[in-house]
Amino acid sequence: MAQQKILILGIGSPFGDDQFGWLTVRKIKEMLTADVKKNIDMEIADRPGLNLLRFLEINYAKIILIDAVNANVEPGRQFYLKADEIIEFTGFLSSHNIGVAPSLALAFALDMPIRHIVFYGVQGARLFVKDNVVSQVVEEAVIKVAHNILSDESGLPESR
User: Fold this and answer.
1) Which end of the chain is more exposed for a tag (fewer CB within 10 A), N or C?
2) How much of the chain, in percent, has pLDDT values that exceed 70?
3) Spatial CA neighbour of 153 closest among 123, 121, 120, 112
């Protein structure tokens, strides 16, 4: 029986600290061997909103979402949430209008499976800007979160 794949999805946009999810996926790609990459789909999504649900239709063993957070906490603060915690999160869990939490709450209401989803995020310092400059706290968080994902998630051994 073939091993089920894992999806690592970087959510964001090309602006400011909202690039966090994209940059983290790129960093993870650099850190994995080709052999490990065979069992992992790594994608980026530009402010997917409810289109996030299309990834739930694919039979992934695990889905790892990575996104910048706008929770009005200190910039650089990291978040790790499991599916049930995501939909119960009272802060604004995304820097997008329809973010991760509302999308997963809808998926849950539609009886779509979400228990295999985890979320890694960081509070951005430069959100809602129209340039591509990333803050230092987010640059540092990219490396930390990439390492955290590789050490936390089974089947994702660091290769460098």
Assistant:
1) N
2) 87
3) 120
